[in-house]
Design goal:
binds 5'-O-[(L-methionyl)-sulphamoyl]adenosine; Isoleucyl-tRNA Synthetase, Domain 1; alpha+beta; ligase; elongated; OB fold (Dihydrolipoamide Acetyltransferase, E2P); 21 helices; RNA-binding; 26 strands; ATP-binding; Rossmann fold; tRNA binding
Length: 628
């Protein structure tokens, strides 16, 4: 049977502590790739899980006064739900290395390699890094410390089983050279070739004095080394030696995502296990970069771990996924900051996408009685059709390359282009002219672009595609990537405009309430308050500011003169709604230039997570009346 299934894996995580945003990063990336392939109609196997054996976990369990299994189980449960559940991780299999199916496979493989002479018994003398669970020879240490993490190592001397890596060194090297895609990105590939060229030493693959692990078959004083146990999970999950039909359909993995610090395990030890078994190597092992806090890797032991569940509580799933997938080119290291998450949400989701949707549905309501017009001619929406086709191709190409953030950049370029198209075509002017054909084509083009965007966003964001579609008047969820083809016959569909899909996050609302009391005692005195001059004014004119999606330019009569006020309320009001409206303005602010326009004051407005409303008197007052 040939291969039919697109198989992707994440590393299996140590359940020694709750996971942090760094772990979520790998898993969300794998999820977006899995969803993308499913959307293209492929059958996908997406596997993640937990790496539960080893000395480190044993020590932690001892400290907690629990058996290792009792110690890890609640952490594993928490990882599955709420963590992966709420992040929308659509795994097909979650493997725990403590499961019987896994133990059987590990022992059976170990036995085969022993029988073949690839594993032999000897004496290990050298250094061990406990936090990394890795063995080192004297020559590999850097300043006497672990070359991977820089932490102190401990001296060990014990009887041990060894895996003859050296026997496969040349074959592995040849494989890496002949398959440029095997290790990606290329920088990691060069690193690994250098590592191999320095010479592979046989690897100690068992320990004595540790009880928490899988026993060496026939020699129960020895426990199999955690990395040998852990790497084998990818075989277990594929049904190796247990379900040959499944295994043949699934193997080898198409993509294995790993953090850069564990590329070595996945591109030296892992392929050699497979070579020794006579099993095909994975098509691609991709080593992605780290999320950093300042200059340091985010990590529990670094004391800078950010809890993803807290972020989900605060911002919701799509802003978190969008940030993780878009912010850092996949492969490179990148800084994590919550401010950047807020900015991404406000700029991309609330502003660019949210405004395009609310403007488009509002215009269809006003200029086409709420129904999507027929596409009469391609002459007007041609540019959007072209840009949509380009995004369709670019997303596909980027996802093939695992350039996930590039895929999102292409989608947001299309959104940006559509916003610009509104400014160029000025549907409000077309509505005043007799040119219904152009007006209708423009409205169709915008609606259709948003429909395409809802399809393209489907692998990345969970709730947003349906929210967009609901407002567009579409009932069906997205089913196939090909639906992202521009030109859908939408005539007569009734749009359903609702509140903005992404309310803007006010940084202070989000950050200041982060478990801390907001200090309101240190606030203004009555004298401070009196310094501000609040007055009633009436809006006489109101227009949009070209090239600024958020801004309206208002002319407000303050009892003495007309003032120009530029205000960021455009997502919430149509200009004509405000004409004649009374407002409260702060009259003695120093004028500031906004987009080249001198703004002479500010309007008072209130906002919550859904809406923004300007503050107005409940009875009409003379312009210039003081508000205090
Ligand atoms: N259990 C091993 C993997 C065995 S795979 C056969 C392990 N576990 S881990 O929990 O320590 O980390 C797993 C993965 O989490 C890393 O490879 C990496 O993908 C991810 N990350 C952990 N911290 C990270 C960051 N700060 N940034 C990005 N990814 C990070 O290693």
């Amino acid at each position: 049977m040939g291969r039919q299934v697109w198989y992707i894996t994440t590393p299996i995580y140590y359940p020694s502590d709750n996971l942090h945003v760094g772990h979520a990063y790998t898993t969300v990336a794998a999820d977006a790739l899995a969803r993308f392939h499913r959307l293209r109609g492929e059958e996908v196997l997406f596997v993640t899980g937990t790496d539960e054996h080893g000395q480190k976990i044993q020590k932690k369990a001892d400290q907690a006064g629990l058996s290792p299994l009792d110690f890890v189980t609640p952490i594993v449960d928490y990882i599955r739900n709420p963590l992966w559940q709420r992040l929308g991780i659509s795994y097909d299999d979650f493997i725990r290395t403590t499961e019987p199916r896994h133990r059987e496979v590990v022992q059976s493989i170990f036995q085969t390699l022993l029988d073949q002479g690839d594993i032999y018994k000897g004496v290990y003398e050298g250094w061990y890094c406990l936090p990394d669970e890795s063995y080192w020879t004297e020559s590999k240490l850097i300043d006497g410390r672990c070359p991977d993490c820089g932490r102190p190592v401990e001296r060990v001397r014990q009887e041990s089983y060894f895996f003859r890596l050296s026997r496969y060194q040349d074959r592995l090297r040849a494989h890496i050279v002949e398959h440029p895609d095997f290790i990606q990105p290329p920088s990691r590939r060069h690193e690994m070739l250098n590592f191999i060229d320095a010479g592979l030493e046989d690897l100690s693959v068992s320990r004595t004095g540790v009880s928490w692990g899988i026993a060496v078959p026939g020699d129960p004083d020895h426990v199999i080394y955690v990395w040998f146990d852990a790497l084998t999970n990818y075989l277990t999950a594929a049904g190796y030696r247990q379900d040959s039909e499944r295994f043949n359909a699934v193997w080898p993995p198409n993509v294995q995502l790993v953090g850069k610090e564990i590329v070595r395990f996945h591109t030296v030890i892992w392929p050699i296990i497979l070579m020794a078994l006579g099993v095909a190597l994975p098509t691609r092992v991709f080593g992605h970069g780290w999320l950093l806090i300042g200059q340091a890797k985010m990590g529990k032991s670094m004391g800078n771990a950010v809890d993803p569940v807290e972020l989900l509580d605060r911002y919701g799933v799509d802003p978190v996924r969008h940030y993780l997938l878009r912010e850092v080119p996949f492969g490179a290291d990148g800084s994590y900051t919550e401010e950047a998450l807020i900015l991404r949400t406000n700029v991309d989701l609330a502003n660019d996408l949210g405004n395009l949707l609310s403007r488009t549905t509002a215009m269809i309501e006003r200029f086409a009685q709420g129904r999507v017009p027929a596409r009469i001619a391609e002459r007007d929406d041609g540019i959007l059709a072209q840009e949509a086709a380009r995004a369709y191709r670019e997303v596909e190409a980027a996802m093939e390359q695992l350039a996930i953030s590039d895929a999102l950049t292409s989608i947001f370029r299309l959104i940006g282009r559509a916003n610009k198209y509104i400014e160029e075509k000025k549907p409000w002017d077309l509505a005043r002219s007799d040119d219904r054909v152009t007006l209708h084509n423009v409205l169709y083009g915008l609606w259709e672009t948003l429909r395409v965007v809802s399809v393209l966003l489907t692998p990345f964001l969970l709730e947003t595609p349906d929210k967009i579609r609901e407002q567009l008047g579409l009932e069906q969820p997205v089913e196939n990537y090909r639906e992202a083809w521009f030109g859908f016959d939408a005539e007569g569909i009734v749009v359903r405009r609702q509140a903005p899909i992404f309310p803007r996050i006010e940084k202070n609302d989000a950050l200041a309430t982060d478990g801390k009391e907001v200090d309101i005692t240190a606030s203004a005195t009555i004298d401070d308050f009196r310094k501000l001059d609040f007055r009633i004014g009436t809006v006489r004119r109101c227009e949009v500011v070209d090239g600024a999606d958020r801004l309206l330019k208002l002319t407000v009569f303050d009892g003495q003169r007309d003032r120009t006020i530029v205000s960021g309320i455009r997502p919430y009001y149509r200009p004509e709604e405000l004409i004649g409206q009374q407002v409260v303005l702060v009259a003695n602010l120093k004028p500031v230039k906004v987009r080249g326009i001198m703004s002479e004051g500010m309007l008072l407005a209130g906002s919550d997570s859904q809406e923004l409303s300007i503050v107005a008197p409940t009875k009409r007052l003379a312009e210039g009346a003081r508000v205090k």
